[in-house]
Amino acid sequence: MTVQRHVAVMACVLAATALFTAFCHDQFLLSLAFTGLIFAVLGQSWNWISGYAGQVSFGHALFFGTGAYASALFATHHGSPWLALACGAAVAVVLALLVGFPCFALRGHYFSIATIAVAAIAEIVVVNTDALGKANGFELPILPPGLASLQFAGKAPYVLVALVLFAAAQIATVALEHSRTGYYLRAIRANQEAAASVGVDARAVKVTAFAGAAAFAALAGSLYAQQTLFVDAESTLGLSVSIAIALVGVVGGIGTVWGPPLGAFVYTFLARYVAALYGGHGRGFDLLLYGALILAIVSVQPEGIAGIARRFRART
Question: Can you tell me the distance from the alpha carbon of 219 to that of 86, in angstroms, rounded to the nearest whole number?
Answer without folding.
Answer: 8
